[in-house]
From TrEMBL:
<feature type="domain" description="CBS">
    <location>
        <begin position="206"/>
        <end position="262"/>
    </location>
</feature>
<feature type="transmembrane region" description="Helical">
    <location>
        <begin position="427"/>
        <end position="450"/>
    </location>
</feature>
<dbReference type="Pfam" id="PF01769">
    <property type="entry name" value="MgtE"/>
</dbReference>
<dbReference type="GO" id="GO:0005886">
    <property type="term" value="C:plasma membrane"/>
</dbReference>
<keyword id="KW-0812">Transmembrane</keyword>
<feature type="transmembrane region" description="Helical">
    <location>
        <begin position="362"/>
        <end position="383"/>
    </location>
</feature>
<keyword id="KW-0813">Transport</keyword>
<dbReference type="InterPro" id="IPR036739">
    <property type="entry name" value="SLC41_membr_dom_sf"/>
</dbReference>
<keyword id="KW-0472">Membrane</keyword>
<comment type="function">
    <text>Acts as a magnesium transporter.</text>
</comment>
<dbReference type="Pfam" id="PF00571">
    <property type="entry name" value="CBS"/>
</dbReference>
<keyword id="KW-1133">Transmembrane helix</keyword>
<dbReference type="InterPro" id="IPR006669">
    <property type="entry name" value="MgtE_transporter"/>
</dbReference>
<comment type="similarity">
    <text>Belongs to the SLC41A transporter family.</text>
</comment>
<protein>
    <recommendedName>
        <fullName>Magnesium transporter MgtE</fullName>
    </recommendedName>
</protein>
<feature type="transmembrane region" description="Helical">
    <location>
        <begin position="389"/>
        <end position="415"/>
    </location>
</feature>
<keyword id="KW-0460">Magnesium</keyword>
């Protein structure tokens, strides 16, 4: 068996490629990249830092370079396009569909865009300009503007002949769309019905009901809707009901992956564009903003502690136990926050079920708070043999964990209402709340009970 046949998307794959690079085996590298499909090449490039990636570009076949660029992370695409001239980009996008051209030109400067637009086929140019007119986070930006649609009243035989003559179907085509003379969507026709039904019948006879997405719908909302309905193909219409594009299985998957990726990054305070091998300066800058915000919240917690300097000076045990209170509240709140953000992403939280969620999380927080407050209280008594300190930390943990769970529900729902991504800032706000409530309850109770 050849080495190339063992080349899979695993750690062994990367080790094998690194071995070829170290040995400067150009023949094997050329052969390897000829064997890989577009997606495999893109994922391979994303698995190496910029310096190695620059070496790998030379082995990508010229006829697939544009498709690879459209597939890789935006950060990588921008770095590559930055060093190209307008004529280079013209060559790269030649033969690509409108979606792929739009992806490549997204990261180009306006001068290159203008030049490349002028070189495009008129129909492709109109589609690309239409895609670029949409905001980045709406369905219209993800859709395929090329649709297979026919007018009502046409026979199935005529549709088949029309499709063969114009070579309209491809691997991703799943439905033929039926429109009126104004291109208003009336229904869809499956490829199975097109083939097996009597050819003299008209498309109206076998037209299916359809579900559509609005082109201005937020991608995150669309992702939740598509997951809930398990859809792999959706027509896209504008506010007037006119057909403007479609989402195929690949587009649906991209929306879902991008939505999940964005949520994961936002929960950690990482920018949308950052990937594993983003340059040091760029990563440091994007993360530094949220570290700075977190520092401000940390000083707020420190200010609360400072208000109880007198009690801390007298009882050293309080300073030792204080991090335990904040930590238990923090983890309890984070668990709830994660569950709620996932529920929002899946479109599961609306109306009356929010009240049920408040009650559930409050009871979960109180139940766990009571159990772990007693555990920590017992440990504290064995450690310090002081009933008053034991009482203080037991009550503080119960209070903080109960309120932390409630905050884990309220914070993301309030942020959602304010049209702020809960994944982006929810964790920072929750940490502040649990720290402040934890220290305030612990030290406040100590002041009341012990002093």
């Amino acid at each position: 068996m050849r080495d190339e046949e063992k080349y899979t998307n695993t750690e062994e794959q990367l080790l094998y490629l690194q071995k070829l690079l170290d040995e400067e085996d150009t023949d094997a590298l050329n052969e390897l990249f000829q064997e890989l499909d577009i997606l495999a090449i893109a994922r391979t490039l994303e698995s190496f830092p910029a310096k190695t990636r620059d070496l790998l570009w030379d082995y990508i076949p010229d006829d697939v370079l544009g498709e690879v660029l459209a597939e890789v992370d935006e950060d990588i695409r921008a770095d590559y396009i930055e060093d190209l001239s307008a004529s280079d980009v013209e060559q790269i996008v030649r033969g690509l569909d409108a979606q792929e051209v739009a992806e490549v030109l997204d990261v180009a400067d306006e001068e290159i865009k203008t030049t490349v637009y002028a070189s495009l086929d008129q129909e492709i140019r109109a589609q690309v300009e239409n895609l670029h007119a949409y905001e980045d986070d709406v369905v219209g930006r993800y859709m395929d503007p090329e649709t297979v649609n026919v007018k009502q009243g046409v026979s199935l035989e005529a549709v088949q002949r029309y499709i063969r003559i114009h070579h309209l179907l491809d691997d991703e085509s799943q439905q033929i769309m039926i429109t009126d003379k104004d291109k208003r969507l009336l229904g869809t026709l499956s490829l199975i019905d097109l083939i097996k039904q009597p050819q003299e019948a008209v498309v109206d006879d076998y037209m299916d009901d359809f579900f559509t997405l609005n082109d201005q719908m937020k991608v995150s909302d669309a992702a939740a809707l598509l997951r809930s309905k398990e859809l792999h193909f959706v027509p896209v219409c504008d506010s007037d009901g006119l057909l403007v594009g479609q989402l195929n299985a690949a587009d649906v998957l991209e929306i879902t992956q991008d939505d999940a990726d964005m949520t994961l990054k936002h929960m950690s305070g990482v920018s949308d564009e950052e990937e594993v091998f983003t340059p040091i300066a760029r990563s440091a800058k994007s993360r530094g903003i949220w570290l700075g915000i977190n520092l401000l919240t940390a000083f707020l917690a420190a200010f609360v502690i400072g208000q109880f300097e007198a009690v801390l000076d007298q009882i050293v045990a309080l300073a030792i136990l204080m991090p335990v209170v904040a930590s238990m509240g923090g983890i309890a709140g984070s668990q709830t926050l994660t569950v709620v953000i996932r529920g929002l992403a899946l479109g599961q939280l609306a109306g009356n079920n929010k009240r049920w969620l408040y009650n559930k999380e409050l009871w979960v927080g109180m139940s766990n708070g009571l159990v772990w407050a007693l555990v920590v209280g017992g440990i504290s008594y064995l450690w310090f043999s002081d009933l008053l300190i034991t009482l203080v930390i037991t009550l503080a943990i119960f209070i903080n964990m109960s309120l932390a769970n409630l905050s884990g529900v309220l914070i993301p729902l309030v942020l959602k209402r304010l049209q702020i991504d809960p994944a982006l800032s929810g964790a920072v706000i929750l940490t502040t709340v649990t720290d402040v409530v934890g220290f305030l309850s612990f030290l406040g109770l100590a002041t009341l009970i012990i002093l």
